[in-house]
Amino acid sequence: MTFKPFANDVDSVGYDGMTVENGTDGISLYGQIKLTRDKSGLKRARWLRDLAASVVQALEAQGDLPESVPPPKPTGRKRNPFA
User: Fold this and answer.
1) Does residue 72 sit within a domain?
2) CA-CA-CA-CA torsion for 38, 19, 13, 25, nearest 10 degrees?
3) Which of 14, 18, 29, 83 is most buried per CB count within 10 Å?
4) Residue 61 forms part of a structural domain
5) Residue 1 vs residue 54, higher pLDDT
């Protein structure tokens, strides 16, 4: 896996129904992944484990983390280009 957690706000990785979106303030996961009792399930479980380990490693490398990240500020209204 070449996903570098918190590196930017543009990377996205998909795997078997699960999507992981990178962000400098947070990582978003959505979709679903089924962990079955077979070799395919083991492969998916290892992928999930490696993803979580890379996020934990990146967070631990930060050192002194804040208690929480403030919510993003609203960017205001933008003109609808289709209107």
Assistant:
1) no
2) -130
3) 18
4) no
5) 54
Distance between CA atoms of residues 51 and 55, nearest Å: 6
**C-alpha span between 70 and 63 (Å, rounded):** 18
Tokens read off for 13: 């990785």
* Domain count of the fold of the chain: 1
Q: Which two tokens stand for residue 31?
A: 């979709």
Given a contact cutoff of 8 angstroms between Cβ atoms, the answer to whether 1 and 50 are in contact is yes
| Identity of the amino acid at 77 | R
Whether residue 36 lies inside any domain: the answer is yes
Tokens found for residue 79: 């003109």
User: Which two tokens mark 27?
Assistant: 């990582």
Longest dimension (CA), the chain: 51
- Mean pLDDT, range 3-25, rounded to an integer: 94
Q: 């009792």: which residue's tokens?
A: 37
Q: What is the pTM of this model?
A: 0.79
